[in-house]
Amino acid sequence: MSNADTISLQKGSLEMILLALLEARPRHGYELAKLIESESGNKLQFHVASLYPMLYRLERKGLVEGRWVEKAGERRRRFYRLTPPGRRALGQQRRSWREFAIALNRLTGFSHA
Amino acid sequence: MPDWREYVRGHLPQLHVPPERESEIMAELAAQLDQTYTESLAGGASEADALRRAEAQFANWHALAREIDAAEARFAARLEPSHGGMLAGWWPDLRYAGRFLRRNPGFTAVAAITLAFGIGANTAVFTMVDPVALRSLPYHDAGQLMAIETRKAQQPELEPWTSILDLRDMRAGAGAFSAIAGISPLWNVVLTGLGDAQQLTALYVSADFFRLLGVQPALGRAFRPDEDNGTQPSHVVMLSDSYWQRQFGGRAGAIGASLALDNASYTVVGVLPAAFRYEGEPLAGTAGEVDIWFPLSANPLAASPRGLRFLKLVGRLKAGVSPERSGHQMRALAATLAQKYPATNRGFAFDVQPLRAQVTGRSRVAMFLLLGTAGFVLLMACANVANLLLARAAARHKEIAVRAALGASRFRLLRQFLTESFCLAAAGGTLGLVVAFAGLEFLKAAAPASLVRAQDVHLDFRALAFACAAVLLCAVAAGLPPAWHIVRNDIESTLRGSGRSLTAGHHGLRAALVVVQVAAALALLAGAGLLIRSFERLLDVDPGFQGRNLVTISTQMPAAARTPAQRTAMYRLIHDRLLAVPGVVDAAAVSRLPLMGMNLSARVFIEGRSTPGEPGADVEYRAATPNYFSTMGIPLRAGRVFDDRDDANAAPIALINETMARRFWPGADPVGKRLKLGDNPALAPWITVIGVVGDVRHAGLDTEPFAEIYRPYAASPLGAPALVIRTAADARPLVGALSARVRSVSAEVPAYNVWLMQDLVDRSTAQRRFVMWLLSAFALTALLLAAVGVYGTVAQLVTQRTPEIGLRMALGASPAAALMLALRQGVRLAAVGIAIGAAAAAALAQLMRKMLFEVQPLDPAAFAAAALVLAAFAALASYIPARKAAQIDPLGALRRDS
Using CB atoms within 10 A as the burial measure, which of B126, B239, B603, B814 is most buried? Predict the structure, then answer.
């Protein structure tokens, strides 16, 4: 798979990835960028420049909610958490992907993507 | 460690989101950079490496801003009015506008200062005009107060006065008024017994005068009706607050005090409030202050016949009676009286007008002219700022397009632009108050007292309200045309990707604005030109006497000098003492001085010309000593002047002026002809005309001389002569010595109204001079604003057409042709503006008719001069950018275009 293919795939999936990463607990932008890099074994390397516009887009859609948090001894950071509509959207997207993967599997003889 | 917040601020292009949201986003991006940087350092990277890693995260700031704007688009849409009403989101608009203006300090400063001058000048002029011409009179229910005037149908220019008997008939016969009060001319009375003799200014008024105005005395009481019953003079007076302070130190003990006035004793019964000033005639349009008030019955003319008209009247309408109805009633009454008393009342009508109109009558034209002119200048300032905003808009079309793409409606964008122009106007208004304050101080110092009463003029709540209104007007006038234009044209054209069409479209509006400016400037220049030419003509007018080295002093004979012989002897004494002062060439006396605003008219009956039984013609009457004419420099035209033989015992004689000679003996020699004076010719002696003297402009340089008759002083010695003293050189240093010499004659002889005659001449032109200077200053400002407008438009045009000009030059056009191309643009705009302005100026000139003197409203010289000056300025303003066009490098210009 070429680099360009990965990027286009990533773009479509970034929304779901962010929602999924926020499912467990609220996180800030830097942490999200780090997680995407490390969890994907550096395979998925998002440019930070597209992370923030995506977060804002999700926020405007009402799927996530950002809040400034200031902890003692730490810098002030904006934490994002999943909203109930975000949770529903994540479930919906997971189902779509699962169905898409199954269909892909059948058509390409590709197993365990 | 870098300041990442500053770093982001410096790199991220302006977002199209509310300011607080933008600040939040910048903080978040800065946090990202900061954390990347510190963790890289913690991981062992060098500082340069850490810096590079952090910075690499946002390599393309423009793309980032675009993506954020797109992501935030829903937010922008949320601000739309459909969600929040007309006013939702005004705060972000305001902050956004504030930021835009802060980021363009040069533009903001120029625009705000331009508006500051416009708003400041207008506020200053408004504050000056307001108390005189706009504010309602400071009396109870002032709308019901009417001025009643007696007018002579054939001589409407005569000052309207009413006789005391006509006043009584009006009171009896006019049911429309609940009260009518008579007011005497300004009277000079002499106070003795309290130190030096003092001259006081007095008015004699009907007893109900103060009640009619709704004025309560601050101390004591007003006159009682029985103190003004017309038969018995009452010896009571009321004091003005300022005189009470001056003479009695504001002590309540003044009530009941006794004052020796004109050698009779009067008791003080009341003191008027400090704020009280009678604004109507005979004070209207003057700075005159009254010290002391008498009941009308105490006036020496209180028992005068019907033909002696010496009163101004003010009446209060009954509730529910219209001014028109009262006017009908008064006209009917005048007709009745004319039938009943034909000798005195035929040809006279009673006129009713609101008191306000009488108060402002003399200065209203000048006031509104100044206010209108200042308004013109403000509009031009707005046009200039509109032009600046349009020029800025050309640089902002991308921003506008993005905002439109993000869902901002036209209304929303329009509001944003208007918010910006409002912020500019508000800044201009704030600065403008400073300008207004300075301007007012200047106006107070420079304006004649008849136009500005310094004590009434200060920046108050009304001035502030006016300035606020001016700010709103500026915001709309300067902001709306460009905003509407941009919003209408730009969204489509910019989205189509054509920036060029946008600026070209702007050019049309900018050109229109410049045309308006040029037109307004021409109207003002032509108006100023007309006033300047009027003033020139006025200065050329011969007042009829030699004003240089001439002093006038008004005085009064002591009570002891009652008979003509005693008064003549007293005058001799004063005359001789004055002649003893070194430098005095001659001294004379007259009953009324020129240019002092005081005249006395008499009826004249001409032998062989007037019809017995008909009322005689009105002429001005004066008594003069034999050397009055030589002292004043009034030329003798025919016959002889008075000499010492013409005393009280000689046969009655008179001198007349040229106007009278022309009017009553056209083409004939009046010397030796006979006439009679007075209301009852049958009883009066024949008076022989012994000579004709030159005309004197007694009422003012701009008023044609009246028919005048002079009688010898010795034949009718006056109680209050005005002295005229001719000196060999400049009289100014002698003034003190001369008035001291007059007072030295007796403790009862005052010296007041001490003037250099030349100062009186200058004072009579002061109002015209002031209006002319102010209008000229406004016109000059307008000229500069118009030139700036032309310059800006042509400069923009040259910039915009540089590629075209470059191409033409590459194809062989000469630099001169390029210069002409640009120059033509400016000159064409100016020509259109001048043509429209000429029409506006013609309309303005008609309004100014009253201010003009011996100059036609469509004076070709004034119009031509204005057009030439304006054309020259426009050409110069176009030449500067046009020269740039001639210096265009064809290759560079073409490369720039590709």
Answer: B239
* A78 and B CB contact within 8 Å: yes
What is the 3-class SS of B241-257, one letter each residue?
Answer: HHHHHHHHCCCHHHCCC
B35–A30 CB contact, under 8 Å: yes
B536 assigned to some structural domain = yes
Same domain? For B687 and B770 the reply is no
Q: Are residues B43 and B190 in the same domain?
A: no
Q: Which domain holds residue B405?
A: 86-140+363-368+377-483+490-496
B164-173, B696-705, B749-758: the lowest-pLDDT one: B749-758
Contacts of B70 in chain A (CB under 8 A): 53
- The CA R_g of chain A, rounded to the nearest whole Å, is 16
Given this structure, which CATH class describes domain A3-108? mainly alpha
CB neighbours of residue B850 within 10 Å = 10
Which residue type occupies B291? D
* Same domain assignment for residues B396 and B474: yes
> Which helix (DSSP H) or strand (DSSP E) does residue B440 occupy?
helix B410-446
Asked whether the ipTM of the predicted complex exceeds the cut of 0.90, the reply is no
Nearest to A60 among B29, B58, B71 (CB): B71
Per-residue model confidence as pLDDT tens digits over B487-505? 776 555 555 544 444 455 5
Q: Is A113 on the interface with B (CB under 8 A)?
A: no
Q: Is A75–B24 a contact, with Cβ atoms under 8 angstroms apart?
A: no
Q: What's the pLDDT at B586?
A: 92
Cis bond upstream, residue B282 (ω within 30) = yes
> Are B533 and B651 members of one domain?
no
pTM across the whole model = 0.64
Structure-block tokens of residue B297: 């019955």
Helix axes B410-446, B90-103, angle to 10 degrees: 60
Dihedral through CA A102, CA A103, CA A107, CA A112, nearest 10?
Answer: -20
Counting residues of chain B whose pLDDT is more than 90, the rounded percentage is: 13
